[in-house]
Amino acid sequence: MAKRQYGDSRPGTSLVAEPPPHRPRRWLGRTLLTLVAGGAAASAALTLLPREAPQRAPHRPPAPAPGPQARALTAVTAGLPAALPDLTELITRQENGVRARPADAHAWAVLGSAYVARAGRTADATDLPRAERALDTSLKAKAAENAEALAGMTALANARRDFASAKRYGEQALKLTPKRWSAYPPLIDAYDGLGDYTAARSTLDKLMALRTAPADRPAVMARASAVYRDRGWREDAAAQLTDAAAAAGTPAEQAAYRAGMGRLAWERGELPEALRQFTEALRLDPAEATAGAGRARTLAAQGRTPDALAAYRTALSKRPDAEVTLELAELYESLNRTQDAEAQYTLVRKRAERSAADGVDEELVLGRLEADHGDPQEAVTRLRAEYERQPGIEVADALGWALHRAGEEDEALKYATIATDRTKGGGVRSSLHAFHRGMIEYELERYGSARRHLQDALLVNPAFSPLWAPEARAALTDLGEVTGGPLPADVL
Question: 488: which of 92, 133, 273, 404 is 20 to 30 A away, CA to CA?
Fold first, then answer.
């Protein structure tokens, strides 16, 4: 019978080495005498020798902290949030590198991805054509199995809201690197933009099944949080982001997740918590402009108008985004500051058209602008074409509202239902979406359902918009209190 080996983990075996066999008793006395005699001699010898100092491991200084270029390189290649100054230093280094080594496909791919990341931080779309040129150069230098450049092209297409191209590049990148976690989140974003929520959830399941390094898990949790939000699982989404922020490795990464937590709190109408998260995000990373816009939005909802206006101006000075500019314009309109509002509406159009010239699809924000503050028929034309290309929930909601503003209520309800019906993909609990559907149903004299959706809009977030929340309350007042008797037929 073979002896069991140390560490054998078969059933019935021990993971601890077996004790040595017992010596026969007849040797015990002789052994003790030998030990006693030897011990006495050894004791005498030790008293004559100087005591030796205990051996210590050689001192090794701690490894130096990574510099800004190294931090940005790690973030860009892994798809993590990066600080804006770090990105700028990385871009400078990579630009110098590709001048010296114009055939270096890796250097070109990093440069292109860094341009995309900086555009996301600054809303300066002029970085996107630069990114496209760099990534194209990388693919020409290394056409086969260039997963880095394909990942950069996926991020670039998402930044331009070209979700069909993002899906194509993302699927190619994932096929080359199925075990790299960073290949999954951009593809999930592409599926969301195309309204393919089944594919987005399936891709998330594959991502969650991967074994990721501890440093990468916060980003995975953040991506899971976004999908959970879209499903309407608000508590799960908040829990994932809370854990992500606690485990984040850099201030920029932690700030991005704090800003996400602020957004979730805002959407739930928890204004003090939203303000706390946005403020903490800005403390961690003053360049986290999405937190600046969120803070301004929250201050406006709290009635702190001067602070809100100042916060909007600060946020837009860092990131002149067309959508945030539209928020500021509507705040001015709610305050009856018509000239200021009109100036901002003009600026929305200019900023959207400027980024569109650099390849960004701005039809969604321009459609929203035209629906409420311009030509509703033009909004319908823009958003109908956008929905044919990219039938996501946000576009469905905007198209439904544009049709309502153009007086086409029956078709408007079709798209408003898509945006709010969980069975059609509209699982996210959005006050704005519920408000839009309620107002459409109000015009169609479906009063029971209209009341329910308008109440839901104000229940989820009573201050969801300085311009439209008062409209929701006015419509509910016009509908009157629910009286006794059977429920209306449209609710049943």
Answer: 404
Rounded CA separation 244/266 (Å):
18
In Å, the largest CA–CA distance within the chain is 110
Backbone angles phi, psi at 279, to 5 degrees: -65, -40
For residues 241 and 257, the answer to whether their CB atoms sit within 8 Å is yes
Distances (CA, A) of 92 to 49, 68, 118, 332: 64, 12, 12, 40
Cβ-based neighbours of 104, under 8 Å, separated by 6 or more:
97, 98, 141
Q: How far apart are CA 480 and CA 450, in angstroms?
A: 12
What is residue 68's predicted lDDT score, i.e. its pLDDT? Answer: 81
How large is the average pLDDT for residues 284-288? Answer: 94
Angle at 276 between CA 473 and CA 324, to 5 degrees: 60
Question: What average pLDDT score do residues 106-113 get?
Answer: 96
Q: What is the DSSP letter of 481?
A: P
pLDDT in tens, 58-108: 555 554 556 788 888 888 888 888 999 999 999 999 999 999 999 999 999
Give the CATH number, domain containing residue 165.
Answer: 1.25.40
Domain co-membership, 315 together with 325? no
pLDDT at 108: 97
Distance CA 194, CA 388 (A): 10
CB 411 within 8 A of CB 249: no
CB contact at 8 A, 428 and 229: yes
Contact by Cβ (8 Å): 352, 325:
no
Domain that holds residue 446: 383-479
**Number of domains into which the chain is organized:** 4
More confident of the two residues 180 and 69? 180
The answer to whether residue 226 is domain-embedded is: yes
Mean pLDDT score, 106-122: 96
- The mean per-residue pLDDT over the stretch 411-439 comes to 89
* pTM metric for this prediction: 0.83
Location of structure tokens 């951009």: 186
Is residue 122 pLDDT above 80, yes or no? yes
Are 368 and 398 within 8 A, CB to CB?
yes
Judgement on whether residues 293 and 347 belong to the same structural domain of the protein? no
Which of 257, 296, 253 has its CA nearest to residue 275?
296
**Cα–Cα distance measured from residue 328 to residue 315, given in angstroms and rounded to the nearest whole number:** 11
Residues 398, 451 within the same domain: yes
Query: Which helix H or strand E contains 331, and what residues bound it?
Result: helix 322-334
Q: Which whole-number Å values give the CA distances from 54 to 48, 51, 310, in the listed order? A: 18, 9, 65
Q: Do 237 and 327 have their domain in common?
A: no
345 lies in the same domain as 422: no
Q: Is 201 contained in some domain?
A: no
User: Which of the two residues, 339 and 427, has the higher pLDDT score?
Assistant: 339
Instruction: Look at residue 345 and tell me if it is in a domain.
Output: yes
Directed axis angle between helix 431-443 and helix 393-405, to 10°? 30
Reduced to 3 states (helix: H, G, I; strand: E, B; else coil), residue 355 is helix
